Amino acid sequence: MSYHYDSYYRRRGINQYGNQYDNRGQGAARGGSYHYTNQDGSFFYQNSDGSTYYSSSEGYGTYTSPYDNPRYYESSESEEEEQEYIPQPRRRNSKKKNVKKTTGKVSKAKSKKQRSRK
Q: Measured between alpha carbons, how far is 109 from 94 in angstroms, rounded to an integer?
């Protein structure tokens, strides 16, 4: 794959299939703004607004609005509003209410003091 940079195009070149492409930078759809010209004479544009245009080698064209483009995404008005929800640790109640603390183990061994009392 060969490419070079240009003042207008971010990146342009020829892909492995012999088709020419121009990457024009970021856009409102995944993949950014770009243009392909295929060897058969057809071409495809994805514009910076997210719309697309395809023209077949026979000259038939198809326009797709940004909202019909599956690669389109709407940018949020404020990225601060889209913060990821992170659950906070729950606070333990500092006042204990009638809680008996048991270890669950009963020791049957007698201490030295208990043995010496006999």
A: 36
